[in-house]
Design brief:
With 110 residues, the chain is mainly beta. The chain is built from no helices and 11 strands.
């Protein structure tokens, strides 16, 4: 099983980014997919999740700004991040079951 994240970048406050996580080696369509993040000096936290049926859940800190989605045909899960804030600066990780991706850095700064 392999998860590969991409899309992290440096962006100004108020900007947007879309993260992608491509999965291989799993039956992607039947698995719940999660996005976590680890902010500097903080523990890793769950940001958003999406079930096989498409139900979503978000951390309170990102509700209304982030959207998780999935494309089962491409074995890929996305995290659309809008109205980014400096406190969203973190390494963002994709996770399925006990498997983690390598992470992608998001920096929100002017």
């Amino acid at each position: 099983v392999q998860l590969v994240e991409s899309g992290g970048d440096l962006v100004q406050p108020g900007g947007s980014l879309r993260l992608s996580c491509a999965a291989s080696g799993i039956r992607f369509s039947i698995n719940r997919m999660d996005w976590y993040r680890q902010r500097p000096g903080k523990e890793r936290e769950l940001v958003a999740s999406i079930t096989s049926g498409g139900s979503t859940n978000y951390a309170d800190s990102v509700k209304g700004r982030f959207t998780i989605s999935r494309d089962n045909a491409k074995n890929t899960v996305y995290l659309q991040m809008n109205t980014l804030k400096p406190e969203d600066t973190a390494v963002y990780y994709c996770k399925v079951a006990l498997i983690w991706g390598q992470g992608t850095q998001v920096t929100v700064s002017s």
